[in-house]
Amino acid sequence: MASDEQGRSRGERAADWIGWHLIELAAVGVPAVLAVTVAVWLACLSAVAALAWTAAEIRATRTARPALARPAAARPALPLSAAAGTDDADDRPDLFGDPS
Fold it and tell me: b/e per residue, 48-70, with b = 16+ CB within 10 A?
């Protein structure tokens, strides 16, 4: 069975992911519903929860994929085959066959 670095199985990771996202959805959704039904100012709580959730997701993504944490200038540039006058068939003979 596949496990991660903490020894959790795929099912345990999925249950963990679902649990945290349900909490996050409740943190945004409950104040939003209360803002519609009770008091409009509760929409601010929903907005704060949404911003915190967004920041946490961005941080988690950057932690999981360190290349995204680097500034754009520090990232390696992509090859510009279109600027050189070539197309994908010229660049990838293994996929498109020999162009000659």
Answer: ebbeebeeeeeeeeeeeeeeeee
Whether 94 maps to a domain, the answer reads no
SS3 of residue 9 by DSSP? strand
> What is the count of structural domains for the chain?
1
Tens of each residue's pLDDT in the chain, 100 residues: 566 667 778 888 889 889 988 988 898 999 999 999 999 998 999 999 999 989 988 888 888 776 666 666 666 666 665 555 555 555 666 666 666 6
The whole model's pTM is what? 0.53
4 within some domain:
no
Cα separation, 19 vs 43, whole angstroms: 24
Q: What is the DSSP letter of 77?
A: P
The range of the structural domain enclosing residue 66 comes to 10-73
Q: Is 90 domain-assigned?
A: no
